Amino acid sequence: MAAEPARAPSRPAAQNQDHILAERRRREKLSERFIALSKIVPGLKKMDKASVLGDAIKYVKTLQEQDDGSSCDENFEGADAGLPEIEARMSDRTVLVKIHCENRRGVLVAALSELESIDLAIMNTNVLPFTASSIDITIMATAGEDFSLSVKDIVRKLHQAFKSSP
Questions:
Q1: Radius of gyration of the chain from its Cα atoms, rounded to whole angstroms
Q2: Using CA atoms, how far apart are residues 78 and 92, in angstroms rounded to an integer?
Q3: Average pLDDT over residues 13-18
Q4: Are the CB atoms for 136 and 81 separated by under 8 Å?
Q5: Is the Cβ–Cβ distance between 97 and 161 less than 8 Å?
Q6: Strands 120-129 and 85-91
């Protein structure tokens, strides 16, 4: 006699119905998210899920490339330990500069003087102690009419200003 293979016990009808409803809710939620995504991504030509997802990926990549072009976080390797970490971002005519450096006399004045010398009008400045010997400086500025530097140039100029300050 050949033995019959053992079958897994089937689910009760109520449990099966719950599973069907849960799966339906999951698919509806996924569809709602695709609809929301399609509303955010500009220039969609097709509305099927594969096209929406593909175009969303392309759109995010273009945003990342734009962001890479409009910000700079440059720390020169091999430089003095006292040299600050400087990050600059630019959006339209507004420039945001973040500096993490040693807490020493004249640091803020050197940064503000350098920014004003390159045709940036200071709108707001915030200085916070980070440790006993370091500070974080955040500066918001507006570019003047003759301003033509890139964010990398701003960072380099600030590094030079900090090197030359006592």
A1: 28
A2: 33
A3: 87
A4: no
A5: no
A6: unpaired
In the chain, which residues fall in CATH 4.10.280? 15-68
Q: Report pLDDT for 44.
A: 82
**At 159, which amino acid appears?**
H
List the alpha helices (DSSP H) in the chain.
Answer: 13-40, 49-69, 107-117, 151-164
Q: What type of residue sits at position 61?
A: K
> In this predicted model, what pLDDT tens digit does every residue of 87-134 receive, in sequence order?
999 988 999 999 999 888 889 999 999 999 999 999 999 999 988 889
* Residue 92 three-state SS: coil
Question: Which fold is adopted by the domain 71-164?
Answer: Alpha-Beta Plaits (3.30.70)
Per the rule left: phi > 0, alpha: psi between -120 and 50, beta: everything else, 43 is: left
The SS3 assignment for 147 reads coil
The architecture CATH gives domain 15-68: Irregular (4.10)
Distances (CA, A) of 152 to 62, 117, 163: 20, 16, 17
More reliable by pLDDT, 61 or 50? 50
User: Each residue of 55-66: pLDDT tens digit?
Assistant: 888 888 887 776
Is the CB of residue 163 less than 8 Å from the CB of residue 83?
yes
User: Rounded CA gap, 86 and 93, in Å?
Assistant: 19
